[in-house]
Amino acid sequence: MAGIFKEEKLDGENNHHEEPGVDSPTFQEHDPHYEKVLIRKIDRRLLPILGALYSIALVDRVNVSAARVAGMDEDLNLSIGDRWSIVLVVFFIPYFIFELPSNIVLRKVGSANWLSFIAFAWGTVMLGQGFVKSWDVLAACRVLLGLFESGFFPVFTRVVERFLTLDRLAIFYLVSVLIGGFSSILAFGLQQMEGTTGLRGWQWIFIIEGLITQVVAIGAWFVIIDFPDKATRKGFLSAEEGTFIAQRIQNDRGDAVPDSLTWAKFGQALLDWKLWAFALMFASSTMPAYAFAYFAPVIIHGMGYSGGIANLMSAPPVVFAVISAMIFARISDRIRMRAPAIFGQCCVVIMGLMMTAYSTNDYVRYVGIFFGTAGCQGNIPAVLAYQSNNIRLQSKRAVGSALQIGFGAVGGVLASTTFLAEEAPLYRTGLWVTAAMQLMTICLAGFTTTFFWIRNKQQAEGRLKKPIEGQEGLRYTL
């Protein structure tokens, strides 16, 4: 990683440089209507294309399960030994390793250039999967897919500020999940191309979805603008609007101006126990999300439905999950607390897991998939926002984001390895490991929230020697 970090000394948590146009952290007075119109202008430009790209990323990493029940299992002999688990797990190794380097490259080459490149690259890999002839080549393609997808998610969290984070993250992420859920219906439609030009239905799933990814990636290069600095230079925002947005972020968390990521700051960030707690909570949220994405079609197929019908029946739980998660997100933003939403959705996941694992009624097991999917999909943006609200400085955010998203890959590894082929379609070991992860999250969220409450109280009483996160007036979000 030599050359990634600048060799400079750590000046402390308050180390940052002033940017022209951001005279102080004091928020300039603006008409609330002006602020609302400006934020909507930015949302209209960025959220649709980022949402489209992330939707495609979600589809491309999990559509292998739809292809499996569409005939790929038999053609590539994926049921032999641990082949299926290997195909799933190899995606997450480069996804974990290259998260931080991708985050740093993003800051150097710009959002439009980097995101368009990696999206086109993973679309090309996806298209190529439609022509594989053996399971080991499929696994190699999954390695490349994980490499290119590792760089996407950090861009969105660079843009939003503290108390709007969960609202926007939830909309952005859950709309992506909704589109991803309907990809199972698309997969069912593509299966009907069985035999066209001599290709199987599962091959067409990869080929068509890969082509869609490439087209969206090309369009993204023309739409995405780095924010807020390059947005003014490219004419999207006026100088006044760019200054206002920069000051808005500066006033909110004191890090509108990027601070260089040095080895000292990298090491100091890794010593912050809160980042590890957030990362573990994120892993326990992504584990059931990947588990249901990869194994729900197999579980439903095991209830006696055909592969095509199993893909169709995988969509309704995702619709329910989006509705549930948005309700939790709205309540959480209104009360300005994250932990209650995390607690509640962990309980929803556990309830769904137990219904799916132990009910003898297939209808009840299917309803369990609804609840399990709802809780975990809602907790992904909730945990992301919980971290975003409670750390500052862009260098620390880069490390925290890489660690958190990297541990999301750990959740994917656990989902791929604990849902054992010999236990299909009940998968009780995997379901119990997933439930244990939710209990861990409840404990971690309880501990961090108690710590944050104590620190806030000490600050209010003037008993803290240093400001919270090095910024005067900042309070932790519970």
What attributes characterize this protein structure?
478 residues; mainly alpha; Growth Hormone, Chain: A; 19 helices; globular; MFS_trans_sf; transmembrane helix
Written description of the protein model:
Helix 1 (32-75) packs antiparallel against helix 9 (201-223), helix 8 packs antiparallel against helix 17 and helix 13 (273-301) packs across helix 14. This protein has helices at 32-75, 83-89, 92-97, 99-109, 111-129, 135-149, 154-157, 165-191, 201-223, 229-233, 239-253, 263-270, 273-301, 307-313, 316-335, 339-358, 362-390, 394-418, 428-460. With 478 residues, it is an all-alpha fold. The protein starts with 31 loop residues before the first helix and ends in an 18-residue tail after the last helix. The protein has one domain: MFS general substrate transporter like domains (Growth Hormone, Chain: A). Helix content is 73%, strand content 0%. The radius of gyration is 22 Å and the shape is globular. 50% of the residues are buried.
What's a concise summary of this model?
The protein is mostly helical and about 475 residues long. It contains 19 helices and no strands.
- Helix run count: 19
By helix and strand content, what is the structural category? mainly alpha
Give Rg in angstroms: 22 Å
Question: Architecture in CATH?
Answer: Up-down Bundle
Query: Span from first to last CA?
Result: 35 Å
Element string (H = helix, E = strand): HHHHHHHHHHHHHHHHHHH
Oligomer: single chain
Give the C-level CATH assignment: Mainly Alpha
Kindly report the average pLDDT value: 82
The tally of domains stands at 1
Write down how many β-strands occur, each being a DSSP E stretch of 2 or more residues: 0
- Write out the CATH superfamily name: MFS general substrate transporter like domains
Q: Give the strand content.
A: under 5%
Provide the helix percentage: over 70%
Give me the CATH fold name. Answer: Growth Hormone, Chain: A
Choose one word for the global shape: globular
Main sheet specs: none
Low-pLDDT residue intervals, each spanning 5 or more residues: 1-28, 159-164
